[in-house]
UniProtKB/TrEMBL annotation, chains A, C:
Keywords: Oxidoreductase. Residues 1-23 are annotated as: Disordered. Its EC number is 1.4.4.2. It comes from Natronoarchaeum philippinense. It catalyses: N(6)-[(R)-lipoyl]-L-lysyl-[glycine-cleavage complex H protein] + glycine + H(+) = N(6)-[(R)-S(8)-aminomethyldihydrolipoyl]-L-lysyl-[glycine-cleavage complex H protein] + CO2. This is glycine dehydrogenase (aminomethyl-transferring). Residues 19-443 form the Glycine cleavage system P-protein N-terminal domain. The keyword Transmembrane helix does not apply. InterPro entries: GcvPA, GDC-P_N, GDC_P, PyrdxlP-dep_Trfase, PyrdxlP-dep_Trfase_major, PyrdxlP-dep_Trfase_small. Pfam families: GDC-P.
């Protein structure tokens, strides 16, 4: 019956790849040129390990696959997500989709031949420059996988660059668990150990941290905003504490927050990591873009790719990957990282989104993230049975609310009303607002009232 | 052709505190945060959408992709990326947060579960984790799984991972990141693993042997069963680097060859776009004995539907969430489109194309018989210059100067997507360059957006942001 | 509240076009160069006709407009449409969308400067060539608005090229009413009159037509498939009847049908018109693409644009618009048509879709259109209270079914079950199947049974 | 740069009867139709998606669009086409059949109703029909409406439509297609309508005067009220050609100036993409007295919601369905995005840009003051050659040799989307060409995908399909 589709294949038995262009005559001519009778003869695979079964995967038409996946993902119920904790939904302007779908960008490979990759290289150079401005640090690579792996790479960088040996990586006790898990794995091949330091009312407990720090510390990590959405208030002091022990100070943040908050370099950050895909991607089931920025002095220890400006034979400015001798394909086991395929296309999207917003739009977004969280918390605080925010801090996008009733139960009832929030503790919900419009937040507050009144 | 930087088009400084979004507040000019928490100003280009559209459209036109022409980068498997997979990944129902309740993300979990299943069948592996966000991440994950397995068995002393010299550089780096000493295995005369050398390298300290099969010369390791036996005999594990899996779909499966752990490069074998360097995805598959050590979470069916679970001895996590979701969606769509027969045909045509092209070009192509790629030698030419000159013929050159086993290597993988005509044109480009004189080589490229770029100057005088550029 | 959007404008009062790039400094510099103080001074509009009201249209953010239109169009209920009668839904492969969205194609203008429009010109040349193959006629223009306006242009062409004067344009009595209405308007500025000729069992009644024809006939129009989905069986005879009176024979068809059915030129068609967007567009609320093909001898009387091959100064083949002296921008009131803006971008989509299918896919689609209509009619015929097809003809995509119960009522009840069909007469339904899958058609047949049993 | 035709890449013949899709039938090889109803074979290129993707990608790169750079074609209003309007038009709920029951297409009807309303407000007209699929179709429709009005009033004898010589060619052709004799009105010395000439042209036979305001020289017809009075005094109607409406948004409305009927070019004023020549949309607006004559159907609100209706004395139809729906959706989205202030600013900046550019270039620019466009003179140069040479400077040239009132005219409309920098570059291109020598002009263009194309040969030796080409 009608499928509106091209035949699955051009091979006569209806069983081939639609993306292999060979017709029978061409295949025959090529086999003849190679001197064999069939493609099967070309497989130099001993009989004993030949696979003669099948995978049991039926081919489907393009249309059928589109409908199948649409139906399948349709089983992700419609929900208003007030979710964050490291992954954020933002409206992405159409320009980002249209440009990033251009085949030249989408289907190109790493820029090993810069003369025919100037466009992508320039975008990556601009991406680097954007984050040089946002972080104040001189070196930005053109992407890690996500915030968690970037943090892992930061720790191994700290291990490499620190003059004295040391073992301890200090991280906030309140940290997305998965982020810490990834860090643990990244340092598992080294002598480093990850240790938590206490928090006080959502932010780093500086006194406790000071007590914990000694010369064995290699890196101190802090976040702003924190996993609970609070804005860290003592960054310079944290940096000083780290530097006093010759440890690196690594800061986790994101490009929207960095548009408004103190410049990391100016507070003493040696490395900035984070998820840059808060611009560029909508909620993507956790897929991200690892930001990695550091000081110029560590440039030869940086993981990942760097794009530099140079000149071409005509003396015109041109861009190229540079310092590739740090990388695995040249330096093998002595590389600064094993990363090869990265998130370049997401970086391109992030760069376009940031350019579309411009500095005014970035600052506006950031200020909205502050005021919207503040206002929403205040509205929830007015609901009987809710205290919000739990932490007496400034917040960014999200905040923790205490509920008299069990948080799990409240969250479940909110889901039944179409709203997803985090239940992070017995009586703690975490709530994140990004681009939600006022009407939606009104409905959410009403739903919370309804649930709490039951 | 020259497109100014965004910063050369505009530079706008926004004073923080002067642009408060909340105009309903008493003081519209004040920032919602105290001064000591904010920066003073932000200076970036402020351009309109028409200006940006032109900027990026022009830049795209200065970039060569698979849709521009042949892209025979060896070991990179630059296949056509079917357009419909983009539309599938753009479905609004794909844009969800992973922390929503499992009951409310059954669609995403089902897709992941199906893809786990498909990949397991294709690789002959007992279980699959989709979490690693790239091939190298898959390698690292596989190494961590192997290490956890050994440690669980009280064999934590094993500290060596053996890697053939012709292996991808990531193998070395991933093993090192996993804390292992890397033992480099010299290649045999036929370009394959030298069993004697392997025997010499194996010991009770061997944690794993990492192998690419077919290897980077495009040669199948005919002794794979013996290799597996040797590795297993010393208690080591056999790791399969999936970069070259496109050569074997439906013909042989790593699991059947004795591999214990493997990664899949979905951006190679399963045609998800390379995106100028990523994102990809590097799921790993493992044999039964390694299943308990896989990263958490995996997806299974439970009473309530699909659910996440943590394997008993899980190594934990290698990505902050569930990996490169959008890439996984595209990979699922590609596999579903092709099915058994399509996947098998993809390999058949990829291997045919490599052999045909190797046959057509005038250059010396040592070793063989080839699967999906071959390594030609530029002979007394500099392979890098040959590559630059190929740009002038409108094609992307092969990978150059690697593997080093072939002098002035041109590592060439046309993949199944090239037609005979296209291969003939590619061969003509190879041959034309071979016939070009030294001057043409030295001058090349002349027909590209940029002429030859000075790599030395780029590395010597680092200018890594527009902030470092003189206004010129 | 959060809108994820750039400010509406860059002008300080928040009220400008986001697509005008001027910042205040630039505007000031430009005003100064021009020698005025404000843009308002540039409007040389007498005070008496100055508009000083407002339109009352509120600007919205990009995101708000997307959501608004999505919500609005969401009020088009989900229905399985079994609708045709001149407009057809087909699955359009992703390639068509991705390529046609490329800015170079989408945002370019008519190819008045061919040296920088070779790409679009070549696509149009290929479009013309596709239809030369499908029609057997030598001349294909690169688009009219739709089938109806193409028919109107065919009549005026017939009027121009016929050696003797004459007035009558004969069209099937069974014809989509709107198509005839448009034709009437197109000839309303001429001496032509439109007259119907009778049909017999869905096809042209050749005897009656022969009786009607005389030397005053300028053109005879017939369609295959007809508006009722029947395949016309006596095209050569119809052409002969027309030619006997020195009238042109104009055939209406479409590219899928033409892939299977007799070549129009070989049956004597002088002009072929129709809707080519059955390839290239999904259901688009009636938006189409007018096919227009004719014999070489009429090339100087053809309406619309023609792309020809030529050479450039280096002697390489190049493409250009040609014979522009026929067109309105040069010939003014003596032009062959007033058409200027046409449907070039739809033609590009149609050309890509056809190329994607290839000849095998086209023939397969066409054969499916025959067998699917035949099989569906047979299944409905088995339902008590339904006779289908009413016409004892071969059908293409669609057919008419007679219902014992009033057709309006049956159609309304089917809509309540999620299926839209045409009710074309008291007891006649028309049903069209294009890319519907088997399961959908099963459900449809079941719904018909249910409705008829009530 | 050269891309072969599809037919040069492949030619495949399918025999009809040998490819039956219905494999379940008894004879899988037979066509479902008798032989005498089918062709014998079909010969066309049969290519895979990767080959097609490259073909069209390369062709696109040989095409210059608004996103490539300045495109100052006079009277064509090449504005930036906001990307989001494409996403709006691609909504699956937009893809419906117009014959579904009205109750089930309330979304589409609402959008049309709102757009009718918006356009009416913007033009100052009492009612709007969205049916005409292009500007010229709008003109034709307007002429039919005018004719129906006259005939309804027993004034069917009126057989003349007056058109200024500087008007768009479509005006003449549309009036002729409507059955009218065209009376060409010579221009006044100031480039505007000469009232004496108009007076001489007007008579009891005048059906309408078609006017573009500002006219093609970019000049506002200052005497518009007097013109309207003169036309109305003889019983004629005043038609507004909307091609230049981008000059007046929010500053003046055709309805307020006395126009009785107008068309809107949504692909100009409201930024829907030109698509290489179309589709556009040419809605018409009319004053009260002409409302009953508008095409059917229009959309109104009724008891059941939005509904279609046929105006009392409707002229019938000018499109087989409801016009170019997808274009109308994009136009709605654009107008909604900009709103009052955005539309007014678009005109302000369009007019500013034209005046600024006219000021910057070295060429003679007669007449003025300009609104959205101006006509420069190439002087003793051939304007067409100037245009060819401008291609070498990477910009699209203006409309050339028209209107004829300016010798060697370069009719230039930058629109509001060009920045000052962009205009300065455009001015530099004008001036560079003005300074180029005769040889450079004659050789131009030299930096384009194709060199100067022989128009004469194209028209003399017609080759309008690949079937006519020698295999070369």
């Amino acid at each position: 019956m009608g499928d509106g589709g091209t035949p699955v294949t051009r091979t006569p038995d209806g069983a081939g790849s639609p993306y292999a262009p060979h017709d029978d005559a061409e295949t025959a001519a090529m086999l003849s040129a190679v001197g064999v009778d069939s493609t099967e003869e070309l497989f130099d695979v001993p009989e004993s390990v030949r696979f003669d079964g099948d995978f049991g995967i039926e081919p489907r038409s393009e249309r059928a696959v589109r409908e199948e996946v649409a139906a399948m993902l349709g089983r992700n119920d419609d929900l208003v997500e007030l979710l964050g904790r490291g992954h954020y939904d933002h409206y992405v302007p159409s320009l980002v989709d249209h440009i990033s779908q251009r085949a030249e960008f989408l289907t190109s490979y790493t820029q090993y031949q810069p003369e025919i990759a100037q466009g992508f290289l320039q975008v990556l150079f601009e991406y680097q420059s954007l984050f040089v401005e946002l972080t104040g640090l001189e070196i930005v690579n053109c992407s890690m996988y996500d915030a968690a792996t970037a943090l892992g790479e930061a720790a191994t960088l700290a291990d490499r660059v620190r003059s004295a040996s040391g073992h301890r990586v200090l991280v906030p006790e309140q940290l997305r668990a998965e982020r810490r898990d990834v860090l643990e794995n990244y340092v598992s091949g080294t002598d480093l150990v990850v240790e938590p330091y206490p928090m006080a009312d959502g932010n780093a407990d500086r006194e406790s941290l000071a007590d914990l720090l000694d010369e064995d510390a290699v890196m101190v990590y802090a976040e702003t905003p924190t996993v609970r959405g609070t804005i860290e208030e003592g960054l310079s002091e944290l940096a000083d504490l780290a530097h006093d022990q010759d440890a690196l100070f690594c800061l986790g943040s994101d490009p929207v927050a960095l548009s408004l908050l103190e410049e990391p370099a100016s507070v003493g950050a040696d490395v900035v990591v984070g998820d840059a895909s808060v611009l560029g991607l909508p909620a993507s089931y956790g897929m991200g873009l690892g930001l990695f920025a550091t000081r110029e002095e560590y440039v030869r220890q940086v993981p990942g790719r760097l794009v530099g400006a140079s000149d071409d034979a005509d003396g015109r400015r041109a861009y190229t990957l540079t310092l590739q001798t740090r990388e695995q394909h040249i330096r093998k086991e002595r590389a600064t990282s094993n990363i090869c395929t990265n998130q370049a296309w997401v970086a391109l999207r992030t760069a376009i989104h940031a350019a579309w917003l411009g500095p005014s739009g970035l600052v506006e977004e950031a200020e909205r993230a502050v005021t919207q969280a503040r206002d929403l918390a205040a509205r929830l605080d007015a609901v009987s049975g809710v205290d919000a925010p739990v932490n007496d801090r400034h917040h960014f996008r999200e905040f923790v609310a205490r509920t008299d009733r069990p948080a799990d139960d409240v969250a479940a009832k909110l889901v039944d009303r179409g709203f997803a929030v985090h239940a992070i503790d017995d009586h703690e919900l975490q709530i994140c607002a990004t681009d939600h419009d006022e009407a939606t937040l009104d409905e959410f507050v009403a739903a919370v009232e309804e649930v709490l009144e039951q | 052709i020259y497109e100014p930087l965004l910063s050369e088009k505009d530079e706008t400084t926004v004073d923080i505190g002067a642009n408060a979004a909340d105009e309903s507040s008493d003081d519209a000019d004040s920032s919602p945060l105290p001064d000591d928490l904010t920066r003073d100003e932000l200076t970036l280009p402020e351009l309109s959408e028409p200006e940006l559209a032109r900027h990026y459209t022009r830049l795209s036109q200065m970039t060569y992709g698979v849709d521009s022409g042949p892209y025979p980068l060896g070991s990179c498997t630059m296949k056509y990326n079917p357009k419909f997979t983009e539309d599938v990944a753009a479905l609004s129902d794909a844009a969800v947060h992973p922390d929503r309740p499992e009951r409310r993300q059954q669609g995403s979990l089902e897709l992941l579960h199906r893809l786990q299943d498909y990949l397991g069948r294709i690789g002959g592996m007992d279980a699959v984790s989709l979490q690693p966000p790239a091939g190298a991440a898959g390698e690292f994950t596989g190494i961590l799984v192997a290490r956890a397995y050994h440690e669980h068995n009280g064999e934590g002393h094993r500290n060596e991972v053996i890697v053939p010299e012709s292996a991808h550089g990531t193998n070395f780096a991933s093993a090192a990141l996993g804390g292992y000493d890397v033992v480099e295995l010299p290649g045999g005369e036929d370009g394959r693993v030298d069993l004697d050398a392997l025997s010499g390298a194996l010991s009770e300290n061997t944690a794993a042997l990492m192998l690419t099969n077919p290897n980077t010369l495009g040669l199948f390791e005919r002794d794979i069963e013996e290799i597996a036996e040797m590795v297993h005999d010393v208690g080591g594990l056999l790791y399969y680097d999936g970069a070259n899996l496109n050569a074997l779909l439906g013909r042989a499966r790593p699991g059947d060859m004795g591999f214990d752990v493997m990664h899949y490069n979905v951006h190679k074998t399963f045609a998800t776009p390379h995106g100028g360097g990523g994102p990809g995805a590097g799921p790993i598959g493992v044999a039964e004995k390694l299943v308990p050590f896989l990263p958490a979470p995996r997806v299974r069916t439970g009473e309530m539907g699909y659910e996440r679970f943590e394997p008993e001895h899980s190594i934990g996590k290698v990505h902050g969430f569930d990996g490169n979701w959008l890439v996984l969606v595209k990979a699922y769509a590609y596999i579903a489109r092709l099915g058994d027969a399509g996947l098998a045909d993809a390999s058949a045509k990829a291997v045919l194309n490599a052999n045909y092209l190797a046959e057509q070009i005038d250059l010396d192509v040592p070793y063989g018989p080839f699967h999906h790629e071959f390594v030609a030698s530029a002979g007394d030419r500099d392979a890098a210059e040959v590559a630059k000159r190929m740009l002038d013929y409108g094609v992307h050159p092969p990978t150059t100067k690697w593997p080093e086993i072939v002098p002035e290597a041109l590592m060439t993988e046309p993949t199944e997507i090239e037609s005979k005509d296209s291969l003939d044109q590619l061969a003509a480009a190879f041959d034309a360059v071979a016939a070009d004189d030294a001057e043409a080589m030295a001058e090349a490229p002349t027909r590209t957006a940029a002429r030859r770029i000075d790599q030395t100057a780029a590395a010597r005088d680092l200018r890594l942001s527009w902030q470092t550029l003189d206004s010129d």
